[in-house]
Amino acid sequence: MMYNRKSNPNSPPPQLRIPKGNETAGKVAKVVGASKFIVNCADGKERLCDIPGRFRRRFWIKEGDTVLIQPWSVQSDKRGDIIWKYSIMDVDKLHSKNYI
């Protein structure tokens, strides 16, 4: 039987998700609508990003949030998918490790 953090306080906290490979962190600049967002990425590019269907009900994203982006293989400079949303504490850890 699996326990979540509320029912088992002795479980380890979740790990910080660090960008790997072609993933990059970014800040949401504008909500376009229909789960589409304009994101200013850490690599200096502005991308139109979607939330994949498997994450749509998991994340509630608004302007100013820091997210993890996976650029598309076809239009990697213009489009991408949002694959993670960072909490405020995670953003501080990313700043201290120079990922943002």
From TrEMBL:
<feature type="region of interest" description="Disordered">
    <location>
        <begin position="1"/>
        <end position="22"/>
    </location>
</feature>
<feature type="domain" description="S1-like">
    <location>
        <begin position="14"/>
        <end position="87"/>
    </location>
</feature>
<protein>
    <recommendedName>
        <fullName>Translation initiation factor 1A</fullName>
    </recommendedName>
</protein>
<comment type="similarity">
    <text>Belongs to the eIF-1A family.</text>
</comment>
<comment type="function">
    <text>Seems to be required for maximal rate of protein biosynthesis. Enhances ribosome dissociation into subunits and stabilizes the binding of the initiator Met-tRNA(I) to 40 S ribosomal subunits.</text>
</comment>
<dbReference type="GO" id="GO:0003723">
    <property type="term" value="F:RNA binding"/>
</dbReference>
<keyword id="KW-0396">Initiation factor</keyword>
<dbReference type="GO" id="GO:0003743">
    <property type="term" value="F:translation initiation factor activity"/>
</dbReference>
<dbReference type="Pfam" id="PF01176">
    <property type="entry name" value="eIF-1a"/>
</dbReference>
<dbReference type="InterPro" id="IPR001253">
    <property type="entry name" value="TIF_eIF-1A"/>
</dbReference>
<keyword id="KW-0648">Protein biosynthesis</keyword>
<dbReference type="InterPro" id="IPR012340">
    <property type="entry name" value="NA-bd_OB-fold"/>
</dbReference>
<dbReference type="InterPro" id="IPR006196">
    <property type="entry name" value="RNA-binding_domain_S1_IF1"/>
</dbReference>
